[in-house]
Write a structure and sequence with these properties.
Length: 382
């Protein structure tokens, strides 16, 4: 059953009208020595995925929210409560923020049993031992780990330890859970089960908190998140519903994860289906409105690209001169990737059958022409 999350959020907050998005998470933080300057918001109960290349600032963001890192300027507010405010000298310590962190490594207390690990938070919060035992059992049941209650962390597999760590993180009833690549350290065989569990717990009604999920994996964003934020070089370059960001990417990173070719240029004419990219006119289907001189994106799938050794003549196609950088096998289809573009954005990609690659005798370093029909190109303002 698909839960109507908005309706559920309304029920949770006792509101009958639109959800009060002002009571979720608000972050505005600048760290000068890291070139980090990020602003973002998430509604109460929302699952926000944060994607970005290595060194983009994802962990820095989590550390600022958790109170482990003090920004040079800015604030963090959660549920209307100010947790960090540099100007106002507010710095609520990490353990008083109502925020749990689930890292790649489960970091369970090795000398405690699984049940004691999960009961630890509620106990520290002042709950009596018997009550904390009941809470621990409930959360172990929620993550399918009741049978592990008496074990010590050393007797758990990576996947089991991560399930227990999730129970421990949620047992304190946080307002927000920060997930730092929770699947990254798991075996590929175990990751899908953990993902399914996270989906059930975070998107169902078991946990009543919001979540910020840092990931490298677009599948995590697709299956777990309400919204996606892409960070590049310490700045938010995209944000919106996951499907919107992937359908209309504006950054090279989002285009790459969406598996599409993205060209960003300038519109020569208002709302016409052509865009100037590095002096080359690219034609496509118009989606939206813009003025002459506005920033416009042209997007097309690698499967829509035909590869030619000579420039195709007399055809109504867009053609691009490309030097092949690599050929990669993608399960029976060969992805032909061109060298990075002059502005540093990723090279264009074409998907061909192995037979076509063999017939054209394509090899890295070879100059070729990529052709794509205007009807296959989607042009929109960005
Ligand atoms: N302890 C530190 N002191 C100073 N600079 C740091 C420190 N940790 C990270 N940085 C820098 O801050 C920037 C952001 O790093 P951060 O670890 O937040 O990126 P990330 O997106 O989490 O990367 P990854 O995906 O590789 O984990 C990088 O330029 C990095 O070199």
């Amino acid at each position: 059953m698909r839960i109507d999350r908005d309706a559920w959020l309304r029920r949770r907050s006792g509101a009958s009208g639109p959800i009060d998005r002002g009571h979720g998470l608000e972050v505005a933080a600048r760290l000068d020595d890291r070139g980090f300057d990020v602003e973002l918001t998430a509604a109460a109960g929302e699952v926000l995925a944060v994607l970005g290349p290595n060194g983009a600032g994802k962990s820095t963001l989590l550390n600022v929210i958790a109170g482990l890192l003090r920004p040079d300027a800015g604030y963090v507010r959660l549920g209307g409560r100010m947790l960090t405010d540099v100007a106002g000298a507010v710095a609520v310590p990490p353990h008083r923020r109502g925020i749990s962190l689930l890292a790649q490594d489960s970091l369970l207390f090795p000398h405690l049993t699984v049940a004691q690990n999960v009961a630890f938070g509620p106990r520290s919060g002042g709950m009596r031992a018997a009550g904390a035992r009941v809470v621990a059992r409930e959360w172990l049941a929620a993550v399918d780990a009741v049978e592990l209650a008496g074990r010590r962390p050393a007797q758990l597999s990576g996947g089991q330890a991560q399930r227990v760590a999730l129970a421990r993180a949620l047992a304190v009833r946080p307002d927000l859970i920060l997930l730092d690549e929770p699947m990254a350290a798991l075996d590929v065989a175990v990751a899908p089960a953990m993902r399914a569990l996270l989906r059930r717990v975070l998107r169902g009604t078991e946990a009543t908190c919001g979540a910020v999920l840092v990931t490298h994996d677009i599948i995590d964003a697709l299956t777990l998140a309400d919204r996606l934020v892409v960070i590049e070089a310490g700045r938010v370059v995209e944000s919106g519903p996951v499907s919107t960001v992937l359908a209309r990417p504006r950054s090279g990173f989002a285009a790459r994860v969406a598996g599409v070719n993205l060209l960003v240029g300038v519109a020569a004419t208002a709302s016409a289906g052509s865009v100037l990219v590095d002096g080359v006119e690219v034609h496509g289907r118009v989606d939206g409105q813009w003025g002459a001189g506005d920033r416009v994106a042209a997007v097309f799938a690698p499967t829509a690209v035909a590869v030619h050794l000579e420039p195709p003549e007399g055809s109504p196609r867009n053609t691009f001169r490309v030097r092949i950088a690599e050929l990669a096998d993608r399960g029976g289809i060969i992805r032909v990737r061109g060298a990075d573009r002059p502005d540093g954005s990723p090279g264009l990609a074409a998907d061909l059958t192995p037979a076509a690659v063999a017939e054209l005798d394509l090899t890295p370093g070879l100059p070729v022409h990529f052709a794509v029909k205007a009807t296959e190109v989607h042009v929109y303002p960005c």
